[in-house]
Amino acid sequence: MRPLPDALHDELRAALRRALHDVPPRGDVHDLLGRLGLHGLEIAPAAGGLGLGLSYGVVVAEELGRAAACDTYRSGCLAAETGPTAAADVAAGARPPAVAPPPAGDALVRARIRQAGYLVGLAAGAHELAVRRSGERRQFGRPIAAFQATGFTLAADLVQIEEARLLTAYAAWLADRDTAGIPEAAADEPRGWPPADGEPELAAIQALAAAAEAATGVTRRALHLHGTYGLTGDAAIQHYYRLAGTEATSLGRPAALWRAAGHRRLTAGPDTEHTTAVLAAAGKDER
């Protein structure tokens, strides 16, 4: 398992994107996910699931966010991990309870990573709408996409989305690295990545903070590029903006998450193992 997408990630993303193409914003996709067999994607095979791991679950969460869908995938995974609904029932398509106890421990780590994936998807979906609208909306006889201020904004937003996506993928890889049933995860660490011991919690915090900032910032700027039309009920962008406002703080506000990440780094002490590995690799490269 690699922290970067493989062929199965890409196939899953493409299939889900096709299935969600005609789903309206805030549409209920529970039955659709059931027909695709995705409710048990992360659940162990012994409970009737596929056991593919969180890195694939993040792809599902991101595509659901891209469609601004009201899904039960994230809440279903959480219910299976924390106990309100049996894992086998979730894999079979049972709807999770509307209200669940707040997650803690490993369940909180995994919930934050899925949430980060959903927020990345919201940002990406809003960015696509902004690009399309900037080519249609005209000022001074030209599409607003022709103006540098618009183009630079869209380019900077794309960089922020990709940054959050990579952080989320890395956090999911760390969370899966020692998961039972995925034995290759620990042995497939690519050169140059930091060691995973004790890092999933920190990576989840950073991924969620970055994704929340990307979602709120990108959707706000995308709404601005739509002009007054973006505020109307006919504009899809307003759904992304509203969802980002609520989803970005459901498992911690970005400022509080960054403070928590900083505290963990300051109290963890120097990462001597990683530093030694980097210096050794640099010495080999110089030779």
UniProtKB/TrEMBL annotation:
It comes from the Bacteria. Its cofactor is FAD. Residues 22-69 form the Acyl-CoA dehydrogenase/oxidase N-terminal domain. Gene3D superfamilies: Acyl-CoA dehydrogenase/oxidase, N-terminal domain, Butyryl-CoA Dehydrogenase, subunit A, domain 3. The keyword Oxidoreductase applies. Residues 107-245 form the Acyl-CoA dehydrogenase/oxidase C-terminal domain. Keywords: FAD, Flavoprotein, Oxidoreductase. It holds the Pfam family Acyl-CoA_dh_N. Belongs to the acyl-CoA dehydrogenase family. PANTHER family: ACYL-COA DEHYDROGENASE (PTHR43884), ACYL-COA DEHYDROGENASE FADE28 (PTHR43884:SF20). This is Acyl-CoA dehydrogenase. The lineage of its organism: Bacteria, Bacillati, Actinomycetota, Actinomycetes, Micromonosporales.
